[in-house]
Design a protein that fits this description.
Length: about 425
């Protein structure tokens, strides 16, 4: 099957790349056939489950603030962002008929809070531009044919040839959505290398949170590993407006303020995810990591100490009664289980509440990680076009690249920005 531009991968970056390529070609007065191959039955399965099904599809911050949330690849992304920034993304969806809302933290959602609206809008826009979307199509290998065209051989025996190829296959996170790392192999076929990958924006598992069956659990700890007695007491607790510090090798490397969720995976929520990248990397490098939670970070230390002392006296030193006045009811059993034997008075209680330490044993892997850190090095790709520096006519975008961001809509916007630039560039560049 012949096509002008072939896109492999129907996620956020792939759909935006295909749509942008077709729109650019139409605007240039030379329409091109753009074909998108997606291995899953429907495109954008990962978008469908993002944001717990609500899909925080971008963050409305301008570049100076937005860029501080890019953990790796900020300089590389800048040109793509200015070509299709968060304001452009919101305007695109509004223009395509999807109402949007911007909530706390500048996070943008479909007004319906249904991720399916984001996916349906992208697919509809692609189809309106003439993009051919082929689902249930697993690409087995890519190469160049005898005429120098890109050749994609599929598992069902079909073949696609194209003048331009856009790789938008994603990383390794949530493999159930189709992200199984195929793109790394495809890129390697054209000489690209790989920056080691690891899961980011994932649950951190404290020591003793999971049941090791008598064994010490370390490193990658599958989410389905049963909870321990302490984990069972903590699971389901949500803490808002608290402080968190990440210690690596005994040194504090990050401090945050916000919300934490204790889940069946471990420490999650905005603060858990914010600390996960450095924490996972440290654990993989053999370093020790510890998260310290300050449950009363908004209260001056002396004021809080005086309050605890007053409550201690009023309650006659009854720990559960004192904690009932200081903590959410559902957190009290877990706190007592963790600190009951060490609290000797109001001083030690205040210190424990301001510095509840959770040594980290491991992390949930790609099976439930939001994003993959690492990937194809950005040095091998032009930031002005997203074209490979190693193979003319090959373009790469999205999570396949060594780019990752914090949580809050930044990763999806980066996928949109790099995908849009890859599509425009592929449509505008000379034929091979």
């Amino acid at each position: 099957m012949q096509t002008d531009i072939l896109v492999i991968g129907g996620g956020a970056s792939g759909l935006m790349a295909a749509r942008s390529a077709a729109a650019q070609a139409r605007a240039d007065g030379s329409p091109l056939q753009v074909t998108l191959l997606e291995k899953m039955p429907r495109p954008a399965r990962k978008l469908m489950i993002s944001g717990k099904g609500r899909c925080n599809f971008t963050n409305a911050k301008a570049w100076n603030d937005f860029s501080t949330h890019i953990e790796e690849g900020s300089r590389f992304v800048k040109n793509a962002f200015y070509g299709f920034d968060s304001a452009a993304a919101i305007a695109f969806f509004e223009r395509e008929g999807m109402k949007t809302v911007v909530e706390r933290g500048d996070r943008a959602f479909p007004a319906s809070h249904h991720a399916s609206d984001v996916v349906d809008t992208l697919v509809r826009s692609c189809l309106s531009e003439g993009v051919k979307i082929v689902t249930d199509c697993t690409v087995a290998e890519v190469s160049l044919d005898a005429k120098g065209r890109f050749l994609a051989r599929c598992a069902d025996g079909s073949e696609y040839r194209a003048q331009k190829l856009i790789l938008a296959t994603g990383g390794l996170s949530y493999p159930g959505t189709g992200s199984t790392g195929d793109g790394y192999r495809f890129a390697a076929a054209f000489g690209h290398t790989l920056t080691p990958t690891f899961p980011s924006l994932t649950a951190l598992v404290p020591e003793g949170y999971k049941d090791g069956g008598g064994k010490a659990l370390k490193g990658h700890i599958p989410r389905e590993t049963p909870l321990s007695a302490l984990g069972g007491k903590l699971c389901g607790v949500q803490l808002k407006n608290i402080g968190a510090r990440l210690f690596i090798g005994g040194n504090c490397v990050e401090e945050h303020f916000g919300d934490v969720d204790f889940t069946d995976g471990g420490l999650e929520g905005p603060l858990g995810f914010a600390m996960s990248r450095k924490c996972v990397k440290a654990l993989l490098n053999g370093n020790k990591a510890c998260v310290e939670l300050d449950l009363k970070s908004g209260v001056p230390a002396d004021e809080f100490a005086a309050r605890v002392t007053g409550l201690w006296k009023a309650q006659g030193g009854r720990l559960r009664a004192v904690l009932g006045a200081l903590l959410p009811r559902e957190l009290v059993p877990a706190f007592i289980a963790a600190h009951g034997n060490s609290v000797k008075g109001p001083g030690t209680l205040a210190a424990a509440l301001r510095g509840w330490r959770f040594p980290i044993a491991g992390f949930v892997g790609y099976e439930r990680a939001v994003v993959t850190a690492g990937g194809v090095p950005t040095a091998e790709v032009s930031p002005k076009t997203m074209e490979s520096r190693l193979q003319k006519g090959l373009f790469l975008c999205g999570e396949l690249l060594d780019i990752d961001c914090t949580t809050g809509g930044y990763n999806i916007q980066t996928a949109f920005s790099t995908g849009a630039l890859a599509g425009r560039s592929a449509a505008s560049s000379p034929a091979l």
